[in-house]
Amino acid sequence: MGLILAPRHYEWPVHVPVPNPGIPGQFETRRLLARFQPLPNSEEEELLTGLARAGRQRDQRRERLRLTLKGLSGLTDREGEEIAFDEEVMEQVLDDARLVAALDKAYMASVAGVEPGKPAAVKEGYVLDQSNSFKFPIEVELPDPARPGRTVTHRLMGTFKELGLSASVSSRDLAGDATLDVQGFQTPDGKQVPWEQAKKVALDDPAITNALLVAYQRGLDGVAVQARREKN
Asked: Of 79, 151, 176, 219, which has the fewest beta carbons less than 10 angstroms from its beta carbon?
């Protein structure tokens, strides 16, 4: 079959991993339908070069979507009402880290000619809400005082707020802004320490801050927690 060389628009399914509210660390898949217009190679190269010169490499996915995303169906509010796609909604979409990651993955797959897989269970629609939050397990690896060169895994449970992509970029500030609650901190005699009391010390500890950020990012990227074997 021949190929017609002409600008094209096409619809493509988008699978968005959303935290399962009943099982922290696991996800359910939400399906949207996007309309894309491919970005010419020359324009994409110009875009990426400009962002790199401005020190804005982290904005690559968002700015690419600004130019390629021409429509999106399946967005709803918390009451389940369909949200029409317009310029104002586009800005909300581009500030939703979870949605941007899924849309960019779908777009890149479409231009590469890779058909999307078929998740076992898919629900239609995605709630567009800037106040979303989710629970996700946190694993903090700390040196084992009894065994030099070995670590001990401390398991906590965090509640995170989904920050927009315009949020602060410093590790400590991002961890502090995104973390609403952490359960599992305790005193030497085993008493539970509320997050508000533990927060200052925790955010000054690089190992804990890193663990918070890893858990938060996995929650946004749809990386499910896998069962792990305990270290001997």
From this structure: 79
